[in-house]
Amino acid sequence: MAGHSKWANIKHRKAREDAKRAKAFTKHIREITVAAREGGGDPDANPRLSLAIQNAKAVNLPKDNIERAIKKGTGELEDGSGIYEEVTYEGYGPGGIAFFLEATSNNLNRTVGEIRHIFTKHGGNLGTDGSVAYMFEQKGSIKVTSEGVDEEELMLTVIDAGAEDVIIEEGFIEVITSREDLITVRKNLELNNLTIESAELVRIPSTEVTAEPDTAKTNLKMMDMFDDNDDVSNIFTNMKMDDETLALLSED
Questions:
Q1: Which residue ranges form the domains of the chain, and what is each CATH number?
Q2: Is pLDDT of 83 > 70?
Q3: What ranges in 40-84 are assigned the alpha helix state H?
């Protein structure tokens, strides 16, 4: 989990920056819409919708936006934007780094064209379905506010709550769960008065590829372009960076 830990740290800091941008709202609105369409508009009877609403509230998405997204998902509201579908893309970046992208799109032809262009522009290539999926395992990830938290006490709480692993980094604590136990562990942590920043399904690489500074920099630039694409909701990679590479990149 060491490589995931460092990458999680970068993603966490970036996520906090993203929360200030419109894309953060777009991502949560689309997730709420899809969740409501698949499982209905009642969060008490739809665990995915409940989770989506909680995450949206964590980035201060207005209540009106949440309610409109639910109504759009259930068909009570039509805004002319079409039906959003979930789709995944797989490929390789420079240096043989594997990428697994999750997206939500109302125009799949547009989205795949944009994704292919980003890969090609940076010396990577879009792969076929299944080309890298086997390299990742889906897990639950819960970010917990570390301020005022006793680490030893937290470890015991997390184990009792049913978590598989804990990653402690500067500024945040990440709790890893099985895919199936994400919602249950989150509820257990809340019952222990821990402040949850987010809870989501992630894909953790089973094997990692160490990237030299130049290769890492090019892959990170590619990630930024994926991140700037409104349709892309999550980016997962098996890139591993040692402390020296991270230090060099942080100076840029």
A1: 85-134+207-242 (3.30.70.980)
A2: yes
A3: 47-58, 63-74
